[in-house]
Structures are given as structure tokens and as C-alpha cells.
Specification:
about 160 residues, alpha+beta
């Protein structure tokens, strides 16, 4: 029985250490994408309103929820050109054929390493009523996102 346990433990140890590097390797969650943090302050009743985020000939469409800040992401192919070009963000009210928000900006993607010799290209943007669509994330967006994350981590009903 001891020999059987030793063989299983040895097999697990070999499997767990099959990495060619002794350094820890993140390697998870690094994907090519463009994302927009949408601060809904200044707009009323956007619940159910459709949004569209487009870049590099690819679009993502969905509906907004009524919240202070919304994160919208558009996955991009792994071989995306870092000179992405124009990113367009549109929000169209229910029953309307014309968007309430139609903003675009030119974007160059930044390479993010996965810590394992690979990586992906991405860029974060923000949209506010006052500032439009920008790669310079305003402090109001950072604060709103932090508050949003804190509210998700807090048990409901506590103050």
C-alpha cells in the first residue's frame, strides 16, 4: 500500500511541476480586448437601453442595466494589430433609431504580459457625459468603479 501511495504522490508532483520555469507564472486572464467604463451619471433611465462597442471590424451588443457605472468589453482576436484604429461606443434608447450617445476615438493597443513569455493587446477607455470617450480615465470613473466593487463585496443590508 505504501508503494502505491508513493507512486501516486510522485505522479502528482511531476504533473504539478511540469512547468519549464521555476518562477511562478500568471498566464491566466490575459486576453486581447478593448473595454469601456461607462459612467452613467447625467443620464436617466438607461435600464434596458442597447449599447454597441465596435473596434477592428468586430462589435459587441447588449443591454444596459440601471447602475452608476457599467463595464463593457469587446474581445479581440489574439493576432490583433496594435494600431487598432477607431473604437466606437453607441447607446440607443429603447424604440429609437438614433443613438443618444455616439462617440469614437482612435486607439493604439498596449501589450500586456502574462508573465510566461506570452501576452495580449488591450486598452481601457472611459466614457462620461462631460468628457466623452477617452483613454485618459478620469478620477470620477476610478472612484465610481471602486465604490461599485466595494458594494459588491459588502453583504446586502449592511451600512
Amino acid at each position: 500500500m505504501r508503494l502505491g501511495v508513493l507512486v501516486i504522490v510522485s505522479a502528482v508532483a511531476v504533473t504539478a511541476s511540469a512547468c519549464s520555469s521555476s518562477k511562478p507564472c500568471a498566464g491566466v486572464g490575459v486576453t486581447s480586448q478593448v473595454g469601456v467604463m461607462f459612467l452613467q451619471q447625467g443620464y436617466t433611465d438607461l435600464a434596458g437601453t442597447s449599447y454597441e462597442l465596435c473596434a477592428g471590424g468586430t462589435c459587441v451588443k447588449d443591454r444596459l442595466e440601471q447602475e452608476d457605472i457599467t463595464r463593457v468589453s469587446l474581445p479581440l482576436p489574439g493576432d490583433v494589430d496594435p494600431d487598432l484604429g477607431t473604437v466606437r461606443f453607441r447607446v440607443t434608447p429603447n424604440g429609437s433609431s438614433s443613438p443618444e450617445i455616439d462617440a469614437s476615438t482612435d486607439v493604439k493597443l498596449t501589450r500586456r504580459s502574462d508573465g510566461c513569455g506570452g501576452g495580449a493587446y488591450s486598452q481601457g477607455l472611459a466614457f462620461t457625459k462631460e468628457g466623452g470617450l477617452t483613454i485618459k480615465i478620469p478620477s470620477s470613473v476610478t472612484v465610481a468603479w471602486r465604490d461599485h466593487l466595494k458594494s459588491l463585496a459588502s453583504p446586502s443590508g449592511s451600512s
